[in-house]
Amino acid sequence: QVQLVESGGGLVQAGGSLRLSCAASGSSFSINAMGWYRQAPGKQRELVATITSGDSTNYADSVKGRFTISRDNAKNTVYLQMNSLKPEDTAVYYCNVNIGPYVINYWGKGTLVTVSS
């Protein structure tokens, strides 16, 4: 049973920084892409950033230059460094991991990030 454990959310003032972590466990298959999505109140879930097994990255335009995604394959962990946070970054952030030859997606339970103005 694959488990994703997220950490690092919290309350921060505008302009501040947070680092999210997501550790995957429970699978014998290799991890393909890893990523972060977010869902603000009353809005649909949206992509924040993804990183492939080859370390290619992709970012939403709204976070480019402020957020950095990275991964530690030895720890099966993906990180999201968030700098220059804005109130509009307030959302529940979800980790997403794509595993194995059948390309199965798994989601974390989410971690709340609140940015005060």
Question: How would you summarize this macromolecular structure in one to three sentences?
Answer:
It is built from no helices and eleven strands. With 117 residues, it is mostly beta strands.
Your description of this structure?
- This protein is mainly β and 117 residues long.
- It has strands at 3-7, 10-13, 18-25, 31-39, 46-51, 57-59, 67-72, 77-82, 91-99, 104-107, 111-116.
- Strands 2, 4, 5, 6, 9, 10 and 11 form a 7-stranded mixed beta sheet that branches.
- The mean pLDDT is 96.
- Gap between N and C termini: 40 Å
Beta-strand portion reads over 45%
Count of alpha and pi helical runs? 0
Shape: globular
Reading the helices and strands in chain order gives: EEEEEEEEEEE
Instruction: Report the average pLDDT across residues.
Output: 96
Low-confidence stretches: none
Helix fraction by DSSP (H/I, runs of at least 4):
under 10%
User: What would you report as the Rg, rounded to the nearest angstrom?
Assistant: 14 Å
Class of secondary structure makeup: mainly beta
Largest sheet: 7 strands, mixed
User: Quick one: how many beta strands?
Assistant: 11
Topology, element by element:
Blueprint: E1 3-7, E2 10-13, E3 18-25, E4 31-39, E5 46-51, E6 57-59, E7 67-72, E8 77-82, E9 91-99, E10 104-107, E11 111-116
Parallel strand pairs: 2-11
Antiparallel strand pairs: 1-3, 3-8, 4-5, 4-9, 5-6, 7-8, 9-10, 9-11
